[in-house]
Amino acid sequence: xxxxxxxxxxxxxxxxxxxxxxxxxxxxxxxxxxxxxxxxxxxxxxxxxxxxxxxxxxxxxxxxxxxxxxxxxxxxxxxxxxxxxxxxxxxxxxxxxxxxxxxxxxxxxxxxxxxxxxxxxxxxxxxxxxxxxxxxxxxxxxxxxxxxxxxxxxxxxxxxxxxxxxxxxxxxxxxxxxxxxxxxxxxxxxxxxxxxxxxxxxxxxxxxxxxxxxxxxxxxxxxxxxxxxxxxxxxxxxxxxxxxxxxxxxxxxxxxxxxxxxxxxxxxxxxxxxxxxxxxxxxxxxxxxxxxxxxxxxxxxxxxxxxxxxxxxxxxxxxxxxxxxxxxxxxxxxxxxxxxxxxxxxxxxxxxxxxxxxx
Length: 359
Description:
Elements: E1 2-7, E2 12-16, E3 19-23, E4 29-32, E5 37-43, E6 47-48, H1 50-58, E7 63-66, E8 72-76, H2 84-94, H3 97-125, H4 131-146, H5 153-169, H6 193-215, H7 234-257, E9 266-270, E10 298-302, H8 304-318, E11 321-324, E12 327-330, H9 331-347
Parallel strand pairs: 1-5, 2-6, 5-7
Antiparallel strand pairs: 2-3, 3-4, 7-8, 9-10, 11-12
Helix pairs in contact: 3-4, 3-5, 3-7, 4-5, 6-7, 6-8, 6-9, 7-8
């Protein structure tokens, strides 16, 4: 099973026999097999025939619609899982402050450990002492020490937020590229090229985690760390946290450091003069209507070619194998295994949730 990306502004997805056919205006066509497709990303103005839509529904293939510059538009989903007993256990866990907070603690602990590991890698690459880097590593270590004593998710979110601030203060030290710009983390819309890549990668990562969560019959809306709110996939945002640094952040830096992305792979967009909406990042944070500052009306976005490069690097990373539970498996499989592990904890088959930690 594979994730399929179709990037086009004029193509059409149709059906022939039991296959999908993606046709371009120049007459070229690509055959896609539904039984080999795990999730379909349509980037740009791709049209879908009625027959193709019915076959997507038949095979229950999730479809994510993104604009030509990577902004999320919509998603095609199907009926919810019939496992009402599993969902009941999710709700019972949510109403059990002790158990829910224990899961949230592990998620925050895993995220902070991954940030520290990433920052220590940066430190080893430095040719001379970097006082700010050393100080921020120690700050996050101190925050990590506070996680076991946190008595509620509000405190944990505060710790996570402070750690993220210190982490991104030194993130640019890991990017050796003259045209790369990163002063601070910005989104909705991203205000620099590095932020544009991070936002797109975080969005792609969220949908991969979401697909894994849905495949296990879990309710995506019932999380433990992120607040539950109308329409918010809190569980997805919870389980994304431990993978942000080892997958998305690592890919972002590599794309700039290895020269894969060029200056021409980015464009500035004035949203006051454009029909495009703000590219709101799928990260669990809502932007209240009318609260976007005037200074954020201009954003830096990836071009179509830039999107293709980021997608390829992201998929290559997901297929990279590392040691996990004493065996060599891909990051994609690790994501699925972590969701299965979470499911077993919710079901009472395992006592405690353990976040993924990379060294």
